[in-house]
Model the fold of this input.
Amino acid sequence: MPENLKQELQEALAQSRSFFEDLRNLGVTAVPVAELPAELPPCPPDVCGIDRGGSAVCRAETLDEIRADLGDCQRCPLCRGRKQVVFGVGNPHARVVFVGEAPGREEDEQGEPFVGEAGRLLDRILFAMGLAREDVYICNVVKCRPPGNRDPLPEEIAPCEPFLRRQLAAIEPEVIVTLGRFAAQSLLDDQAAISSLRGKWHQYQGIDLLPTYHPAYLLRTPAAKREVWEDMKQVIKRLRESRIG
Done:
């Protein structure tokens, strides 16, 4: 043990001993201790779990708790045509979260995001990055399939976005990758073209965010795969730098 640390501990013990001796001289024979709950309750959304004294008063929500709160969601008209709520899948402590637009037909059938042909291409992109689905988290801006796979409407996004924010707060990723125009524009509140947004770092709720093309677009435009790979190399670099730092 370093000599200075040893000396500090000895001084702290001496001060504690003196404090309790003073209490005894004053006739105090017991010091009541407040009972702490066996487990801290989850913090309400967007509320910090630290009181003014610096003590924890609640804890971060888990993804399971957020999913339970979402329930059999009836918060917007998309519930009428969907088969399943597609919440998200992957590592609850992922360093990277991929956010798409909305579930498609196959996702609605299986209850899991990116399980169709575009999802299989996403799996190959992850493999090239040295990752797998089990390493990342994958979700969408909205949890239910829009009719005909159209873009979600503002009144459909509004009740869903708080759940996305809560998911990201629970996971605490280092990087968000948005897939496609709609996801980037929704999270960034920016109507610029995806060709302008992609490949540039942004911020969402204090988290680094990098937009890129949607895998479905790559199926139609294979030449854009090179640009997506350049984007993913930026993600890999950012994660490596974070690990070293």
Summary: The mean pLDDT is 89.
